[in-house]
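Before surveying the methods themselves, we first show a specimen of the format, giving the amino acid sequence and backbone structure tokens:

:::
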Amino acid sequence: MEITKESIEVLYDGPTIQKRIAELGKEIAKDYAPLTDTLYMVCVLKGSTHFFSDLLLNIPIDVHYMFIQIASYAGSSSSGQIVVKSWIEESVQGKHVIVVEDILDSGKTLKYVLNYLSKYHPETLEVATLVDKASKDHYGIKAKYVGFNAPDYFLLGYGLDYNQRFRNLPFIGYVKHGEEA
């Protein structure tokens, strides 16, 4: 069955998302202001762009940001293969780094990113995720900054997609029962 905008049920509305992102920004600033004048943040494209942009606006310390693009999903399930489309262009050695991810689901892609970035020997390396499917193991990865702990639904909106569709929805939703992705 085809997913339509009408078949998506709202899980977190826009104001709820914005409120939580503001709280995360304050948490990050509180943790890092005593450690550094500049925080390095890495946005995992494409899904994290909305979260990343809004989060940056809520962090009152200087942020140097970079982008990486990695893919491992086709439709609603992991392809099992990680494809790197673009990577950071500078070293993060000795820097305080936060990787910003839209959703911590299986953890396979994020594990790859963290393992690779750790080779640069950052001072600290943490994860901020908008959504954590907490019922999953994530290869042992724990995000320090979590927007929402969500049930194991297939989520759409606010950067999360199905075959590149529905990223621009102003909320996070899931497909109503009985409709498959």
